[in-house]
Amino acid sequence: MEKNMHLNSMQILCSEVVNRLGVHPAAAESALLATLEHFHAEAHHPAVARAGRTPAEYLAVAVTTPRFAATLSSTALMADGREADARLSWEASVQREMSAAMEAHRAVPPTALLGNPHAIRPIGRRLGLSNEQTDQFIPSIVLTLAAGYPYRSAHQRHLSLTDILARVTKEELAELLRHTALSVAGRTEEAAAMLRRFQRAAR
């Protein structure tokens, strides 16, 4: 019974993609399988377990997110041979994500760290960053935090994205700035190691 319900929901999703994008049903089906495989792999990342979610819980949330819909749409267009449309679809979804993240950031009160540029810049300077570099890194950090927002840990699920951003501490921001600086400098292995340490500390 449960398997039939799952199959029915997948068929409905495929039909919606076909109707919305005008792609061939086979393209929609292969795109759905590829998208589910992608999110299934993400669901087994150790960070998911550290956030207190099982892979099944992660997937249940993931399929409702704009990122799942955007991945499915661009993959279906690509599978249908419409590469330019796929690229434009993905770029538009990224733009929407960025706008939503920036809107949440603008709503952070000035009493909170991420709502106060004058409090942020000294943290950057202690890391050897100029004010301009710190200012450039903050939108990227906000977007990173927003990307993980739907999968937040159990005790934070009632919070809005603005609330989450408002709770970032000086120590967390320093780590995030260091990570971004290493990534921008192309020191990806060091950046990945730092992110793992940061995730372990956040358990």
Give the fraction of residues assigned to helices: over 70%
What is the molecular shape? elongated
Q: Mind telling me the C-alpha Rg?
A: 19 Å
Instruction: Find the count of extended strands (DSSP E, 2+ residues).
Output: 0
Structural class: mainly alpha
How much of the sequence is in beta strands?
A: under 5%
- As an assembly, this protein is single chain
Mean pLDDT: 85
State the helix count: 11
Given as residue ranges, the uncertain stretches (5+ residues, pLDDT < 50) are 1-5
* SSE pattern, N- to C-terminal: HHHHHHHHHHH
Termini separation: 37 Å
Largest sheet: none
What would a concise description of this structure say?
The chain has 203 residues and is an all-alpha fold. The protein contains eleven helices and no strands. Helix 5 runs antiparallel to helix 6, helix 6 crosses helix 8 and helix 8 crosses helix 10.
Give a structural overview.
The protein contains 11 helices and no strands. It is 75% helix and 0% strand. By secondary structure, it is mainly α. The longest helix is centred in the middle third of the chain and has 24 residues.
Fold topology:
Blueprint: H1 2-21, H2 25-43, H3 46-50, H4 55-62, H5 66-79, H6 83-106, H7 117-126, H8 131-147, H9 161-166, H10 170-184, H11 188-201
Helix pairs in contact: 1-2, 2-4, 2-5, 5-6, 6-8, 7-8, 8-10, 10-11
